[in-house]
Amino acid sequence: MKTIYKMIIIYIILFIISYSIMSMIKVGNDPIGKKLVDAWIYERNNTSSHTIDINSPTMIYIQSLALSLFLFVIAATIVKMEWRTGVAILAIVIIIFLSIVSPQSLIHNAIEWNLILFLIGSMSFAGILREMGVFRYLSIKILNLSKGNVYMLIALVGLLATALAAVVDEVTSIIYIVMLILEIGLILKIDVEPLIIFGVLATNTGSVALPIGNPIGVYLLFTTKMNISTFIRYALPLSFLDYVVLLFLSLVVMRKYIDSIKDRLIKQRKLIETYITHHEIELNGSRKRRLIYYGLILLVLFIAMVSLNDHIASFLSRVSDMIIDPHSFLAFIPYIFIALSIAGIPLEDIPRHVERSVDWSSLMFFICLFILSYSLTYTGVMTKLAYVFSAANSQTLLLPIMLLSSALLSAVLDNLSVIVTFTPVAQFLNSLGMVGFMIYFALLFGGVFGGNYTPIGSTANIVAVSMTEKRKIRIKWSSWLKIAIVTTTSQILVAMLWLYLATFL
């Protein structure tokens, strides 16, 4: 009961804070304010701008409810990660019964069903590949390449995560990187918590390199009509620079952890070599080797198909004479390879892999988080925040303000929702000549790198946390922040310097 009373008190405090903030922020009738309000009304599907006032007492009350409920879920997650799904469900029940957002809007607009379907399929396929022995095989190859050098091991894991995220996407990358790290942990019998956190940060860092790597990149590319060569010119080099920053700072921050692994590798070196040799002998000429190779072929084809998703969807659209949405097609790619895996595993085992490999609790949390984030957009909370950040009137100020504000908000909000809300502001400021096209890269870098700050900052983070929890490994907020605060802040500073160099030189 004490816990319930404490949570009630916390919510009341959060509501008072939310109400104070929403009351203080008034969206004006200036051009920026009007453009933001028009975008907000369009989001709500209102036909007339006179039917609703974003600054009215009623809307302030509704905005305060939406914001306080979102903050309450974040607070509960920080207090105890295991509470996140239950508290999030409670929050959306309140949202629906208080009519903060209409249920039909939540179903049609709030939830990224493409992502949910993709996650279910990818997690199931990853479980099948694990059963085939693919991840153990790859982890042994990485251990062989590292030659017992812990620095080389960490660098290889990070490089693989960065490269994979760039050519496929952050969600696909993190599922397979986490599987790989878990297998390395089983072989070496080490604590993998810091290594998984590093793998997630590297994945997000790599996802900024190419448009396909992150939903934010795809959104900005199409919304702003940006040339893909321009995107690569400014995003790819920074992704590489920030990976180098991440690697070196992580080696410093994780030095105690690295020393413990180093000692483990020294003490267990012969045992590890024996294990690797035994694994090779065991596979020699056996059905297991053929199964692993078949699994590797499926994995490579899966990565290739995800990378070429847009081209495949375009080709199928021409051949079938119907419009095939690339994002919708992407959601079904994992299921193609689950079907192909039947050649290597019994058909009756498929339900078992779906049941064991998919973290249903975390998927429910994803759905709730989408709803909570959308409620902030629907009620006008994000519009008010965007209006505040648009107050700066020079490019020298606007670039860091957009970068830092999107980064800080992306640490606790769905980063795509943040960028979708801020983009109309950026487009309007760009149309007025107040800032150049680099403001879009400020949003890209802020949204992606800002998501590194917390375990709930991006989809990849939440997927990684849920996958490790399924293996009884708990990633603590304190452990995450210990690594992320230093590395992510440095990455954002490098991004800010990069923006200035690209803009003014």
TrEMBL record:
It is a multi-pass membrane protein. One of its GO terms (molecular function) is arsenite transmembrane transporter activity. It comes from Ignisphaera aggregans (strain DSM 17230 / JCM 13409 / AQ1.S1). Its main location: membrane. Belongs to the CitM (TC 2.A.11) transporter family. The lineage of its organism: Archaea, Thermoproteota, Thermoprotei, Desulfurococcales, Desulfurococcaceae. InterPro entries: Arsenical_pump_ArsB (IPR000802), Cit_transptr-like_dom (IPR004680), Diverse_Ion_Transporter (IPR051475). This is Possible tyrosine transporter P-protein (TC 2.A.45.2.1). The chain crosses the membrane at residues 7-25, 60-79, 86-107, 113-129, 150-168, 174-190, 197-222, 234-254, 291-308, 328-347, 359-377, 397-416, 428-446, 480-501. The keyword Protein transport does not apply.
